[in-house]
Every structure is written in structure tokens, then in C-alpha cells.
Amino acid sequence: FGSILAMMAALLFGAAILIFVAANWEAIPRLVRVAALFAVIVAGYVGGAVLKTRDHGAIGEALWIVAAAAFGGSIALIGQMYHLTGDEASALLTWGAGTALAAVALRSNPLTVASLGIADAWLLLKWGGFFRRSEFPHLFAAIALVLFAISFWTRSRAARHLIILSVLFYLVLLSMDHNTLQVSVPLTFVSALLFAAAVFAAAPVDRIVQLGGRLPLHALIGFLTGMAMIQFELADEASYNGAFAIASAVALAAIVAAIMLGGRESRGLRWVAYAGFAFELAIIYVVMLQSMLGTAGFFLAAAVLLGIMALVIIRVEKRMNAPTTEGAKA
């Protein structure tokens, strides 16, 4: 908790410095401006490193965040001062690259997460901002891959979790700009394979990805995201063919399978599965509302199938637990 408070204080301190400098920018001589900005950066990184060596890790990491924030502010303010060409997206890319290099040099977990946050901001700005061009920001895939590799060096498991979620968000944006099925179908297939690998070969897979056993959770999120994109694409054709109903049935079956295979070990996975189940019910109702009989028939069939599966699962688990119980009594 103290580390979190230190990070919050660092962010507020960095924002205060940048706002103060910006408010008094014109009154400060140009040379003093540049010197002050670089002084904050150097003091933050060097001071943080010194504190880290003296067992004040939280405060040291907080100073590194201040230095990274000052570096980003310096890019904007110096660019404005010397009328350098470029746009906000380029500035964010430079800021993120500098923060990532600092994360590697200092082996910093928070700086790795910060560089990912800057990369996400760059993605949003390039995709939907004022500077958007005809091309899609495919560079984000390479950035995510580099940051994922860096996260192993900086021992940042949090960054790896966030990178996976960011890649899923990137794929959603990609599907909106390109053919949806060309993105969603491979995403669904790869997510299913990753889930199977993470469940049936949990130990060796987790030694590779080092996600603390959370790969099934991410794989399920990826699968449900892909299925949702497929269902949205097929929603307009729901009245003309059964593709939407098939996709919905596959999604519901996959949710049940995910709970059966990985739900016992992961509470988070169960909650994601429950959320996915609620989403499936909602989208099925909305899309098939024009045919109440079709909706009722689909729900009836799904209820019967789920009921049968639940009965089978209960009986199987009772038989599997019976020897253990008898042995304990003996």
C-alpha cells in the first residue's frame, strides 16, 4: 500500500512541476528552462537509483516516474520553444521509447508499465485522433512485442498482463478498420489453443510466459472477444441463416468448458465466464428479438443441454471425490 501511495505522490509531484513550468514558461529565460527540465530528469533518475540501493525501493521507483514524466513534458515544451516540427503522436512515440530505455537500464517494473501506458496513448491517438492517416498503426504490434520482452528483464508481471490486454484492444481496433472475420476468427482459434495449452500443460507454459497461472484467464478473454466480434459481424444476417445461432452456441459451450477445465483454480476466470455468459444472453436476445419463437427455442435447447451437462459434471465429480472421502474416513 505504501508503494502505491508513493507512486500516486510521484505522479502528482510530476504534474505539479510540469504545470508550474508551463504556467511560468514565458517568464523563465530559455537557457534556464532547458537546464531546469534536464535537472529534474537527472535528479529523478539518479536520486531514484541512489534510494534503491539504500533499501528505499518505493521512493526510488516514484522518483523514476517523476523523471519519466519530466522527460515527456520536456519533449513537448522544448518542441514548442524551438518550434520543432512534428505532432503529438511522434512526441508520444519518443517519450515511450525513452521511458522503455530507462526501464531497461534501471530494470524498473513501474517504468515498464508506464512505457506501455504511453504506447496505448499513442495507439489511440494514431487510430482515432486528429493526426490519423489512411494507414492503421500496425507499429503497435512490434511495440507490444518489444515491451513484452522487456518485461522479462524488468521482472514486470503486471506489464505482461497489461500488454496482453492492450494487444486484444489493438486487435479490436484492427477489426474495425479491416475485415472483421479476418481478425476475429484467428483470434478465437489462437485463444482456444492457448487456453488448452495453459490448462493441459500448465507448468511448462507458465514457465515460458510467467503470468502466474493467469494465461487461461487471458485466453478466455481473447476467445470471448473474438466470438463477440464474429457475432456482431453475423448479427445483420441472423434472420437469413443460422450462422449467428451456431456462433452463439459455440460461445456458450466454450464458456461452460472453460469453467469445467479452469474455473476451479481461478476465481477470476469464473467471473469472466459469468460476464461472457451474461453478454451472450443479452446479444442473443437483442439480435433475435424479431423472432421471439426462435429466441425461446434457442434458450430452451441451451437450457436442456446445460442442464444435462451440469448433471453429468455433478455425477462425475462426486465419483471422483468419493475415494478421497472414503480414504479420509478410514
Query: Helix fraction?
Result: over 70%
Described by strand count, sense and barrel closure, the largest sheet is:
none
Mean pLDDT: 81
In DSSP terms, counting alpha (H) and pi (I) runs of 4 or more, how many helices?
13
* Low-pLDDT windows of residues: 324-330
What is the CA-atom radius of gyration, in angstroms? 25 Å
Shape: elongated
Number of strands: 0
Structural class given helices, strands, pairing?
Answer: mainly alpha
Distance between the termini: 46 Å
* Strand residues, percent: under 5%
- What are the secondary-structure elements, in order, as H or E? HHHHHHHHHHHHH
Q: Can you walk through the features of this model?
A:
With 330 residues, the protein is mainly alpha-helical. It has a domain at 181-323. 83% of the residues lie in helices and 0% in strands. It is built from 13 helices and no strands. It has helices at residues 2-23, 30-53, 57-81, 88-106, 109-128, 139-153, 157-177, 180-200, 202-209, 215-234, 243-262, 267-287, 292-329. The two termini are 46 Å apart.
